[in-house]
Specification:
Elements: H1 3-15, H2 17-43, H3 48-71, H4 79-110, H5 115-138, H6 140-143
Helix pairs in contact: 2-3, 2-5, 3-4, 4-5
Length: 145
Amino acid sequence: MSKKLIEQITYSIYKYKEPILYLFFGGLTFLLNVVLFWLMAVRLGWEPLSANIVIWIICVAFAYVTNRRWVFESRSAGLKDIIREAMMFAVGRLATLAAEELILWIGIDLLNINSMVIKLLSQIIVIVGNYAISKWIVFKESSAR
């Protein structure tokens, strides 16, 4: 590879570091979410909406830690600020959970769409919504760098 190409790649990685890291850790959260949904709702027979709530709690904890530390590099330091930030993160995720639960209910219960299909489709809306809430509300001071 030429030096110029390496410089362009390095610049692009630096310039788009936040979205790249969000996609990476969001991808891990997505995989955790879908695998747990398959395990709990499909294999173990849990009611899908109930399984989704339990999975949501696990995934929000994972996402908060990764988003705080690596994606948005939060500068909140005091316990009060970290609790406030975590609460805002959870409330934002509650909003997308409500949207996801509605999509799952309509897709599974009303339209009889396969639960895994509707789960995967709902994740598109959830991922975009979560990024917007995290970037422009929860971690806005960190993202303004």
